[in-house]
Structure to design on (317 residues):
């Protein structure tokens, strides 16, 4: 029996999971704990909280530690997450923290592996289609920010996850009013251009509502008051679908689109809105492909832990 400590380090929350891999290679979750990321001044201090909170598995005890982080990973050992105030460096994990075996991966690489893990059985169908088990699938999701990744077949019955920082690219705009919205947001944020990350994350919901109504509300308040008839919802559904469609076409994701993250989980109306389906399938040349691609919602907030644990399982065999 092997133990895996999985971590999902995000800008808002840092989650840890104790997983066990039995002799039949079955993975099971024994316990989890969450911390507010900003309450730790370094990655080492964050790890030390596990011992202080008497968590059931410490990094020193685990046979494998897999750390998923919301940022690009360099040289397989270092990350400077764009929305976290400290860096992660596992180059000397044993000397620094007593960790025997450790891997650092992008958080949406973990989300990609979660799509073929036990937690995926709880997914909800948003748009029907026919998934091709031999094709690539994509996962993307917005919470505090937007993440993306691709899962591609490895030719031997398994998959390989590829990271992406596509959330930091330009948001496609298709009308004069959307261009006005872009100028409005950039004037507030001082960004050189409007990114997908800004538009479809929680803060994007607030910017859309502010632009359309003049009201400055936080995403939680908007989520509690909006309904399917609100322009704010229609705009957000359209933008979210456009991001999903473009990523699906970029990767020819005939295996499906898996949406995760707090925005869709807390306000599923956005991706169940008629404007989402309309925009997702909106292509003069590729509509016949897009209508075949199923879209799923992954609502378990510990998807990333399952994905990190699945990655760890692969490294143990």
């Amino acid at each position: 029996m092997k133990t895996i400590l999985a971590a999902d380090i995000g800008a808002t929350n840092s989650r840890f999971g104790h997983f066990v891999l039995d002799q039949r290679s079955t993975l099971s979750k024994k316990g989890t704990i969450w911390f507010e990321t900003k309450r730790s001044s370094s990655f080492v201090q964050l790890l030390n909280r596990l011992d202080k909170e008497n968590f059931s598995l410490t990094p020193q005890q685990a046979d494998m530690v897999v750390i998923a982080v919301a940022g690009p990973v360099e040289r397989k050992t270092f990350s400077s997450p764009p929305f976290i105030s400290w860096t992660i460096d596992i180059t000397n994990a044993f000397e620094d923290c007593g960790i025997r075996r450790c891997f650092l991966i992008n958080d949406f690489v973990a989300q990609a592996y979660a799509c073929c893990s036990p937690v995926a059985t709880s997914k909800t169908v948003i748009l029907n289609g026919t998934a091709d088990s031999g094709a690539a699938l994509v996962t993307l999701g917005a919470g505090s920010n937007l993440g993306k990744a691709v899962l591609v077949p490895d030719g031997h019955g398994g998959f390989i996850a590829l990271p992406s920082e596509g959330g930091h690219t330009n948001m496609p705009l298709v009308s004069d009013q959307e261009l006005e919205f872009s100028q409005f947001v950039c004037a507030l944020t001082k960004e050189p251009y409007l990114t997908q990350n800004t538009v479809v994350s929680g803060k994007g919901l607030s910017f859309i509502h502010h632009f359309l109504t003049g009201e400055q509300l936080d995403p939680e308040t908007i989520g509690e008051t909006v309904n399917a008839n609100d322009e704010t919802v229609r705009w957000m559904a359209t933008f979210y679908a456009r991001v999903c469609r473009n990523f699906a076409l970029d990767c020819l994701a005939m295996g499906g689109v898996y949406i995760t993250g707090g925005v869709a989980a807390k306000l599923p109306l956005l991706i169940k809105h008629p404007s989402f389906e309309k925009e997702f399938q909106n292509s003069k040349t590729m509509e016949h492909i897009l209508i075949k691609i199923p879209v799923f919602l992954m609502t378990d907030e510990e998807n990333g832990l399952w994905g990190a644990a699945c990655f760890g399982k692969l490294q143990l065999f």
Observations:
- Residues 124-297 form a domain with the Hexokinase; domain 1 fold (CATH 3.40.367.20).
- The longest strand covers residues 27-36.
